[in-house]
Write a structure and sequence with these properties.
With 482 residues, this protein is of the alpha/beta class. The chain contains 14 helices and eleven strands. α9 links the parallel β4 and β5. The structure holds pyridoxal-5'-phosphate.
């Protein structure tokens, strides 16, 4: 027995102990506070020295989860109406433990066997829901950042085939790409890291539904071409981070077709609507994309990390990421291209198992039900808040993200922004629930998202009541001001 080995009795006892803790945590989620009250939150770092010798594992496994829960910020809570971080399915939590134990190395098929086939099947299932009828490919990623950056790398390879070997200086002019002012900041990072520079990303203005203004896209492309720059890609967002707005992918695809530009759809959140027969039309036109980002760790209720990049040009994956290693010979009889040649990763965790297992246990219809329910709940909340006198809808709600503003018709924008922030501070002070304030197209909004699969009308009603009582408190003159 080596020092890391535990005997069977201890292994089982520790496993049961942890499962009990996770089970109680899950049972508490419908009513769990998201975090501690404001006055108890501390952001000071821990300062213990590294332990020289170990402690009793049962004691450590009792103390650490208890502290993590007591001092944590709980995105799985049904009272978290926050950013795109879900309550994981329980099956996915178990899948994570299984993957950690088996630790398959998905870089090559040689060393992963069934695991890589499961991953391929999961990618195929998602691609089939997109509606692609010709060959497509894809790969799991660490998340949307990696998927978006990989997609832009594919677009570069397609347009500037020498760039993989010779670098961006071989292009001979500035390559440019387009995305709306509401698109995700991972695109800025990607443009910087791909060596074309963040200024190569042209931010196109949005309309009052927070969608890319396609007429402005056309003018920007014409301007860049006239100036000798080289447009190569347009990124349409299916589910913006602020508002859940979905760009008009059909109109953008038409522009891309005319100018021979790569169309990437950043559907990190919203592309999951393809799992619902009733609501897939909300992301209509997605099948016209050359590549798509979809993050199972957002709307598909997976724990971090799980992103997916799909492309209808599968051959470009190897042209972009392919490389050779003498230390990893190909398995005899395997015709599949190894994962390390189709993605930015080498050592690779099996991020697909949790989604594959959830689909095995709950089926596609489980997701359809989740998506349909959350869209209905968001519509319910819009009506609930609009029926009161304090808030008005700021951006039309499409996916389960709601943007409202405090109703202060005579106030300037700074006044509304200050009131929105004060209300959010008041609502989140106790730690019971979480919403946020952001700005859409230059206007301050309060952002509410239905993301935990445990959230229902009850939690939303409590939130609405908390928002109204916060508005009454921070805006004592609100009635007079209107
Ligand atoms: C629209 C969009 N794209 C991409 C990302 C990045 O995804 P990840 O956080 O998985 O890297 C996000 C994250 O919220 C997002 O909202």
């Amino acid at each position: 027995m080596t020092n890391f080995d535990l005997d069977e009795k201890t292994r089982l006892a520790l496993g049961h102990q942890l499962v009990e803790i996770i089970n109680s945590f899950y049972a508490s989620l419908p009513d769990r506070a998201v975090q501690m009250p404001l006055e108890q939150r501390s952001f000071a770092p821990l300062s213990d020295a590294m332990p020289e010798v170990g402690e009793d594992p049962a004691k450590v496994l009792e103390e650490v989860p208890a502290a993590m829960i007591a001092q944590g910020f709980h995105v799985p809570s049904a009272n978290y109406f926050g950013l795109m971080n879900p309550a994981p399915t329980y099956v996915a939590v178990l899948a994570e433990a299984l993957v950690a134990a088996l630790n398959p190395q998905l870089a090559t098929q040689n060393r992963s066997q069934l695991a890589v086939k499961i991953e391929d099947e999961t990618v195929r299932w998602i691609g089939e829901r997109v509606g692609w009828e010709t060959a497509f490919g894809g790969t799991f990623t660490s998340g949307g950042n990696e998927a978006n950056m990989s997609a832009l790398a594919l677009a570069m390879t397609e347009h500037f085939p020498h760039v993989v070997e010779d670098g961006v200086s071989s292009i001979g002019a500035l390559p440019v790409l387009y995305a709306s002012t509401e698109s995700h900041h991972s695109l800025d990072k990607s443009a910087g890291l791909l060596g074309i520079g963040r200024r190569a990303l042209r931010r196109v203005a949005v309309n009052d539904r927070a969608q890319m203004d396609v007429a402005q896209l056309r003018s920007a492309i014409a301007e860049d071409k006239a100036a000798g720059r080289k447009p190569f890609c347009v990124v349409a967002t299916a589910g913006t981070t602020n508002s859940g707005a979905v760009d008009d992918m059909e109109a953008i695809a038409e522009v891309c077709g005319q100018h021979k530009l790569w169309l990437h759809v950043d559907g990190a959140y919203g592309a999951a609507a393809i799992f619902s027969d009733e609501h897939r039309g909300l992301v209509g036109g997605i099948e016209g994309a050359d590549s798509i980002t979809i993050d199972p760790h957002k709307w598909l209720a997976m724990p971090f990390a799980a992103g997916v990049l799909l492309t209808s040009h599968p051959e470009l994956l190897e042209r972009t990421f392919g490389t050779q290693t003498p230390y990893m010979p190909k398995a005899a009889g395997s015709t599949r291209i190894d994962n390390f040649k189709v993605s930015a990763q080498w050592s690779r965790r099996m991020n697909s198992m949790k989604l594959w297992l959830t689909l095995r246990v709950h089926g596609r219809q489980g997701y359809e039900e989740l998506i349909d329910r959350q869209i209905m709940l968001a519509r319910w909340m819009v009506e609930r808040l609009s029926a009161g006198s304090f808030f008005e809808l700021a951006v039309p709600q499409v996916l389960p993200i709601i943007n409202v503003r405090v109703r202060l018709p005579r106030a300037k924008e700074e006044g509304v922004a200050a009131a929105n922030s004060a209300i959010v501070d008041e609502v989140t002070r106790s730690g019971e629930r979480w919403i946020s304030v952001t700005s859409v197209n230059g206007r301050s909004v309060i952002r509410i998202m239905v993301i935990s699969h445990l959230t229902g009308e009850r939690q939303l009603e409590n939130l609405a009541a908390a928002m109204e009582s916060a508005a009454k408190k921070v805006l004592p003159n609100v009635a007079a001001a209107r």
